[in-house]
């Protein structure tokens, strides 16, 4: 099952096909989210994927959502960016039943990331987040894109090497 608690994305990645979502972010009220999580539980749903573009934009809200998911004993997954995660939130997510977190890595080359509007991506922070998630038994998926502006065989190899530093039983790249 999929669920959406917010729409839009505060970032401006140039490759994103969701042009209408760029720079526009809005959230359902927490009361609405709470009610919908309870309805999922009543409907017998055991797992859902949170299809928000970026989970955790509002830190306090992310903690409240985790509490609500845990209270309803659901399992879940989401997409986010390393800018919004830290050890405390990752532990909260894992404790609430989060099974998978997906990140848009796109490339491990800074020139490529700069060219697509993701120059703020801190690859060391992403590495720390991936390792914390894996250590908390949360699977990770990294999305990569070949053929971006400034890409070459070398930058693609750099991205592959970045991905291969992780335990491939817990970290998947697509």
How many individual β-strands? 8
Strand content: 15-25%
Chain-averaged pLDDT: 92
The general outline is globular
Please work out how many helical segments DSSP would assign: 6
SSE-based structural type: alpha/beta
Low-confidence regions: none
Which oligomeric state applies? single chain
**What is the topology, as strand order, of the major beta sheet?**
1-4-5-6-7-8
Span from first to last CA? 21 Å
Q: Write the element-wise H/E pattern from the N-terminal end onward.
A: EEEHEHEHEHHEHE
Radius of gyration: 16 Å
The percent of residues in helical segments reads 25-40%
Largest sheet: 6 strands, parallel
Give your account of this protein's structure.
The chain is built from six helices and eight strands; from the N terminus they run βββαβαβαβααβαβ. By secondary structure, the chain is α/β, with parallel strands linked by helices. A six-stranded parallel beta sheet has the order 1-4-5-6-7-8. Strands 2-3 form a two-stranded antiparallel ribbon. α3 (87-95) links the parallel β5 (75-80) and β6 (98-106). The radius of gyration is 16 Å and the shape is globular. The model has no long low-confidence stretch (mean pLDDT 92).
